[in-house]
Amino acid sequence: MQDHVSRLVGLDGFRVKCVIEDGDQLDLEVELVARAQSCPHCAGGALEVHERPVVAVRDLPIAGRQATLRWRKRRYRCRDCRRTHTESCEQAPSRQRLTGRFHSRLAERARSGGAHAEIAREERTSRYQVTKAMRISAAAAIDSRPSALPRRLSFDEAAHRKGSNSLATVVSDLDRRCVHEVLDGRSKRVLERYLGSLSEEQRSGVAVVCIDLHDPYRQAVRAKLPDAQIVADPFHVVRGAGEALDTVRRARQREQRATVKGKRGRSATWNPRLYRARHLLLRGRERLTERQRRRLCDLFAFDPVIAEAWWLKEALRSVYAADSRAQAEWRLDRFAAAAARSGYQPFSAYLNGITPWREEILAHFEQPVSNGYAEGVINKVKVIKRRAYGLPSFEGFRERVLVACG
Ligand SMILES: [Zn+2]
Fold first, then answer.
1. Which of 10, 129, 238, 378 is the most exposed place for a label (fewest CB within 10 A)?
2. Which residues contact 28 (CB under 8 A, 6 or more apart)?
3. What is the domain partition of the chain in residue ranges?
4. CA of 75 to the centre of ligand 1 (A)
């Protein structure tokens, strides 16, 4: 019977000696099947059992009931050197309160999206154990990553702590669509150190690097990957134009409020039309329905400044719809001239921001890459952060991202 129970529990090398029921909990008295051993200190073979301490180790539930191993360990004393050692086992390493397979189960649940507190409650263990299980599996996953760098990389920033300046850089592999590394910071130095730590072979394999418009990224790539082509991420470029339009809209709302204020006070002045159209204005022209198109036309008749700002945003977007690099160049120049002429401060600021990136923006027509994948990662990271009730350290953040997206 004992052998049957041992087989049922299925922990290699362990024999179940007795099962004690306590409500819905099971205590299994187990011991390791004794093996011939030699002294780890002097390699002598004359060992005697010196003590039998009992340790409690949580294991997977059995038929829905919480199971704890009561393991009577053998502590040996060597007759030759008089030193002691304790038997050990891979599934229940010393000083671990959970078996390896129970840790794996917790990590598996955490990886598939469970909130740590909820897993701990359901598995009747502590949040500390869930986090620890996650750490162990993360370390294993990180070690088993492919070492080869992809041909196409991207650098993207992500905040790893809310409300502070803790910015990280996510290095993504655009070929395999996974995160390759997470760096603590976004300075030139941080990136150069990372790129410098790669082998010559890894670095020479990188042909394209897609980055957001952050000059330290560009400088580091130029310094360390001189042969790689740098592409400005189209999402960031287009988003900047949308932000400029949004700033113009908010300024218009304020102006209109100010002009009417004198007459009837603040509450009567608020024209919600511009505010209500805020999402519609940012939507791409080709994605508008007929009705939305008419709504915008009405709005533009009412406010020609918004009409011009919207046109500027669309003019910038049209650069990416160009059929050729030459056409894109022409459209970019047309946008630049119109933005400068408009005199709208948000657009001149935006233009100043993108002008030094002309080559990298147009490089998209030779290497049509984007950080779309990394953007997805960053959204995923936000969810990961919420589940993990805040991330105390950069290291914890890095692990989570690599496990979830590696
Ligand atoms: Zn010895």
1. 10
2. 5, 9, 16, 18, 19, 20, 59, 67, 68, 69, 70
3. 1-97, 100-144, 152-233+370-405, 234-365
4. 13
CB 190 within 8 A of CB 183: yes
Cα–Cα distance, 6 to 192 (Å, whole number): 55
CATH of 152-233+370-405, one of 3.30.420.10, 1.10.3720.10, 3.40.605.10, 3.10.310.20: 3.30.420.10
Nearest to 228 by CA among 274, 271, 256, 191: 191
CA of 43 to the centre of ligand 1 (A): 6
Query: Quick one: which of 379, 388, 390, 384 has its CA closest to 404?
Result: 384
Q: What's the rounded mean pLDDT across residues 200-207?
A: 89
Place 163 in a pLDDT band, splitting at 50, 70 and 90: low
Contacts of 98 (CB under 8 A, 6+ apart): 57, 58, 59, 106, 125, 129, 133
Separation of CA 36 and ligand 1 centre (Å): 14
Which amino acid belongs to residue 357?
W
- Cβ < 5 A residues, ion ligand 1: 39, 41-42, 44, 78, 80-81
Q: How far, in Å, from the CA of 213 to the mean position of ligand 1?
A: 65
Distance CA 123, CA 286 (A): 51
347/254 Cα distance (integer angstroms): 18
pTM: 0.70
Query: For residue range 28-66, what is the model confidence (pLDDT) as tens digits?
Result: 999 998 777 888 889 888 889 989 999 999 999 998 899
- Of the candidates 211, 206, 199, the residue with the CA atom closest to the CA atom of residue 227: 206
What is the CA(320)–ligand 1 centre distance, in A?
Answer: 74
Q: 16 alpha carbon to ligand 1 midpoint, in Å? A: 30
Mark out the alpha helices in 112-187 (DSSP H runs): 116-122, 127-143
